[in-house]
Amino acid sequence: MAAQFDDTLIIFDLDGTLVDSAPDLAAALNHTLKADGLAPVDPQSVRSLVGQGARALLKRGFTERGRPLEDEAEIAERQQRFLAYYDGHYADQSKPFEGVTSCLTRLQAEGARLAVCTNKPEAFAGRVIEAFGLTDFFVRIAARETYAEPKPSALPLLSLQAEMGCRRAIMVGDTETDREAARRADHYLAFALFGYGEADPPLETPREDAFDHFDTLPAVLAAFPFVRGEA
Predict the structure, then answer these.
(1) Number of folded domains in the chain?
(2) Is position 174 annotated as part of the catalytic site?
């Protein structure tokens, strides 16, 4: 008898989906702001700034403090400062969301192939996942530079699906970036309500649904039409 998720690739976002990384990203952003004499941002507010990579996070953080970064050299200098600090602090306060390990174990046992697609730089994506003992769950980790275009392009999701040879794919993410990438790739979507995106996102049933804890994710995925044999 076939396992429930045979021939299915489940692609997870990283920041705000698998790992609550906002505290360490906030520390790196505030370190960068402080060097320019700017006040720190509230660590909680960083949650809404995560999703499109360090460059976008910096630009939005500096704009919040009334000093927009517009010159490319200026942006590059701040990004280097941000990444240099984050390099030594990416696992200080970050942690996987509750229930991640047991959920991934269950999905693997049900035949799913698991991958990560993040807009985090390659220099950090694998190391963050390794720091929390999650590496062995994933057949592939795709970072911002892995393919020619990052999310919200469909390219990373479609490339992962082609590489794994799976007939169907599901994106699990927490922001509009993830939702748009899934729609462009014509993939199913499970939206993490505890993440860094909208609290009440507009979802298109039956191909999209939401979950509020990893304990409930397998049931949400199992309710998609193709799992029930309806598509």
Answers:
(1) 2
(2) no
